[in-house]
Amino acid sequence: MGSRIDHYSHYAFPVATVHAALVDENYWRSRLAEIGGPGATLEDVRTGDGTIDLHMTQSIPAEHLPSFVTNFHPGDLVIHRHESWQPVTGDRATGRFSAHVDGLPGKVDGTSTMAPDGAGTIVEIDGEAEVRIPFLGGKIEGIIVEQIVELFDVERTFTAKWLSEPH
Question: How far is CA 165 from CA 123, 154, 162, in A?
Answer without folding.
Answer: 20, 17, 5
